[in-house]
Specification:
It contains 4 helices and no strands. By secondary structure, it is an all-alpha fold.
């Protein structure tokens, strides 16, 4: 699960806005620098952060769904091979066709020799 994003710029702007509104709620500093415009930009940035966090949540949910589907498919794949082994046997050609390794084709484990005996 991914960490949700916080905007430090939005938090700082909200504090600045509160200070500007304490001067005047209709403060106009010229060149379009008004409290109303500033508040609108803050709300726009907040909405974008919220939308981004919602997308993260949806991605997390999708990731969980994909992982669950993968697990179910791995389990079914194993069960299919086990069923072929049950019906045809582990040394059958059908078992090999289904992706298994025939019992007769498996290598027997080699025993490690003691280094002292070899010397």
């Amino acid at each position: 699960m991914r960490k949700k994003v916080k905007s430090m710029a939005v938090e700082k702007a909200q504090k600045r806005l509160a200070g500007l509104e304490s001067i005047s709620s209709t403060l106009d500093l010229g060149n379009g620098l008004t409290v109303a415009n500033y508040a609108a930009k803050i709300q726009q940035a907040e909405a974008m952060v919220d939308a981004y966090n919602q997308v993260l949540s949806q991605a997390d949910a999708s990731t969980s769904s994909v992982k669950q589907a993968d697990k179910e498919l791995r389990d079914l794949t194993e069960r299919m091979l086990e069923a072929v082994a049950t019906v045809y046997g582990k040394d059958s050609l059908e078992y090999k066709k289904a992706g298994g390794t025939r019992k007769s084709e498996r290598k027997s484990p080699k025993h490690k020799t003691d280094a002292k005996k070899a010397a």
